[in-house]
Amino acid sequence: MTQINDLRSFIEILRQNNQLAEIERPVSLEYEIGTVIANLEKKNMGAGLFKNVKNSKFQVIGGVLGSMERVALALGCKKSEINEFVGKCLDNPIPPVVVDTAPCHQNILLDDEADLNLLPIPTHAPKDGGPYITGGVTVGKELHGNRHNLSFIRMQLKGKRKLGVNINEWRHMREFYDEAEKEGKRLPIAVVIGADPVYYIAAGLRYDGDETEIAGALRGKAIEVVKCITSDIYVPATSEIVIEAEILPHYREEEGPLGEYTGHYSATWQNPVLEVKAITYRNGAIFQTIAGASFEHVNLGNVLPREPLLKKFTQYVSSGVINVHLPPYGSGFLALIQVKKKNPGEPKNLALAAMMSYVNIKNVIVVDEDVDIFNPADVMWALSNRVIPEKDIFYVPNSQGHELDPSSDRRGVHTKMGIDATLSEESKGIERVVYPDIDLQEYLDAK
Ligand SMILES: Cc1cc2nc3c(=O)[nH]c(=O)nc-3n(C[C@H](O)[C@H](O)[C@H](O)COP(=O)(O)O)c2cc1C
Ligand SMILES: [Mn+2]
């Protein structure tokens, strides 16, 4: 099996596992690529590799981590093992190793040559404010010191060497930027576009050190990094494209709107801008993108970072918890808990624990061990069959949620809801009809 160490080797894995749609037809950066990625996702047809992008010499790929099947392929584990595996890696970091020469420096454009218009930056959703880099990992470093940080920062194309940047509150990158701004200094950063998928998964995680160490843990091997050309920031040597830039202090411009993870558009905000210092890329570079409001957006920003916590919190309350899931169709607001319950009140306690595990979690559904939490139809079946509303549903009004939740107020205050969708004690003795799973191929292939 191909060993994954960059985007290209993962594309090969996707190809081998029928998780790649290879598109030869010429496509436009304006809306067309975003629309095709969204349709591929809806029809579960794999990541989209656009080989012929109008007005660009680069290929574009989107939806790389848009399904849990592809996340499992990236991590080399089963779908049901993902949260356990990511949780373990967060406790066992592997620091990166520095190399001197790197494929990502095969082509170097400096200063005035570093023109963003050379890159295939898509405008994804119909009402996005313009072209956006959404599938880039921002590498930050504190101004005084060597602490690195990975995260996703959406970047709006605003000029040949200018991007608008949106760094939200409480982010590690925000700390770096606030510190630089206080001193009136520019903050050097790098944007990595196209890398080993574990680098993307690590960037969405909340970790107090350098998330590159978690990428190493997820890969089971140190990530090879190289020093940037214009700063002392380190990026993966096999990155497809790297933008080296500086965020300006004490300057704001309008930025937005963009399709957000809630499936709604964000408002426009007054946000900082950056100036590009260099663009470097590999020969035959592939530009990676993430369609706003896609499952990939939710997987990276909500599902993968928070499932390990959800598991820890709920298993602390009950050893009967079998698995947990934050399905991407729930925008990170819906948690599903599968339990072999011992006591009738246990599912309610589990719902409360889930609500405590992360502020965004609003609705919690607890199901029995015979319900597949990775199959929405099975969860809907449990809701339809096993819920006695006046007894099984409870609310926590005026609790804290996330400001982008459309059902919350401006400060993110909303009502949380817990649903015990397990079979009630009184109904015990009723048995579910279960046909065994078989390998159909044996029937279809038989002569
Ligand atoms: C596709 C995608 C886009 C995101 N865009 C932003 C963004 O524009 N601004 C932001 O602050 N967080 C954004 N996030 C969330 C952060 O990347 C995420 O919370 C990250 O873990 C923050 O890391 P940090 O605290 O280490 O900086 C995005 C996440 C994803 C998956
Ligand atoms: Mn961090």
Overview of this protein structure:
The chain is α+β, with helices and mostly antiparallel strands and 447 residues long. The chain folds into 2 domains: 79-283, Electron Transport, Fmn-binding Protein, Chain A (Pnp Oxidase, Chain A, Roll); 318-427, UbiD C-terminal domain-like (3-Layer(aba) Sandwich). Helices cover 27% and strands 25% of the residues. It has 12 helices and 23 strands. It has helices at 7-16, 32-42, 68-75, 82-90, 172-182, 197-204, 212-219, 295-317, 346-357, 376-386, 389-392, 441-445, and strands at residues 20-23, 47-50, 59-62, 97-98, 107-110, 132-133, 136-141, 148-152, 155-159, 162-165, 187-193, 224-227, 234-236, 241-247, 253-255, 269-271, 273-281, 286-289, 321-325, 334-339, 363-368, 393-400, 413-420. Strands 5, 6, 7, 8, 9, 10, 11, 14 and 17 form a 9-stranded antiparallel sheet that branches. A 5-stranded mixed sheet has the order 19-20-21-23-22, with helices on both faces. Strands 1-2-3-18 form a 4-stranded mixed sheet, with helices on both faces. A hairpin with a 6-residue loop joins strand 12 (224-227) and strand 13 (234-236). Helix 4 (82-90) crosses helix 8 and helix 6 (197-204) crosses helix 7 (212-219). The relative contact order is 0.12. The structure holds flavin mononucleotide (FMN) and manganese (II) ion (MN). The site of manganese (II) ion has 4 residues, from loops. Manganese (II) ion (MN) binds at residues 149, 172, 207, 211.
